[in-house]
Amino acid sequence: MAVSETESHWTLDRRVPVALILSIAVQSAGLFMWVGALTSRVSELETKAVRAIDAGDRVIGLEAEMREVRRVLQRIEAKLDRRASNRTAGPFAAAGP
Is residue 30, in this structure, part of any structural domain at all? Predict the structure, then answer.
């Protein structure tokens, strides 16, 4: 079946209502606006996710520092306890360091 040259081109029939063309145009504009808003929201969420990751890294660092502070504090308390027990051990304990 051969297709003539006039049948191979797309044409708009006059019977297509203007309302259909306008509704398609409005829907397309709405779609573009929705995609733009969606892109903005995704970008904002990506920024928040990066901040959350950074905050998590800071928390991990603070936890490590707190463990070190606790370790040092326990050493200080142990030294103070030894010193206090040496002073109450006897009359000659006060002459010590």
Answer: yes
